[in-house]
Specification:
This protein has one domain. The protein has 4 helices and 7 strands. The protein starts with a helix and ends with a strand. A 7-stranded mixed sheet has the order 5-6-3-2-1-4-7.
Length: 121
């Protein structure tokens, strides 16, 4: 019986390792306009595009939340990967511009986000 339990523990360890390894390499890609969430949620029809660039850059510099607005009007909150803050900074530098962000999509309580691991040129 102990021998059988050891076998199951070993199999469970391999399965858990495979799941965690897959999670570490899993990633999603989302393309859209980098928006400042404060303005967009308050004024969605007037707070996008190049005409809103200066305001979006100002909001990003203040540390206000930024997001990614896709062509089908989905919004993803941009989240910093604490192990790779340069990728998040690169996304913020594209305020009011199109960007393709790679990272893990997350969703909690109806809010969806993406952990910024890379920004494609």
């Amino acid at each position: 019986m102990v021998r059988a339990m050891r076998g199951w523990v070993l199999v469970g360890g391999f399965v858990l390792g495979a799941v965690l390894a897959g999670r570490a390499f899993a990633g999603d890609t989302v393309t859209g306009e980098v928006i400042d969430m404060s303005c967009y949620l308050h004024h969605p029809t007037t707070s996008t595009g190049s005409g809103h660039r200066k305001c979006a850059e100002t909001c990003a510099k203040k540390g206000l939340p930024m997001g990614l607005l896709t062509a089908d009007k989905q919004v993803f909150l941009l989240l910093e990967d604490h192990d790779n803050p340069k990728a998040y900074a690169a996304a913020l530098a594209k305020a009011a511009e199109q960007a393709t962000v790679e990272g893990d999509k997350v969703s909690v309580g109806g809010v969806q986000g993406i952990v910024v691991e890379a920004v494609k040129e």
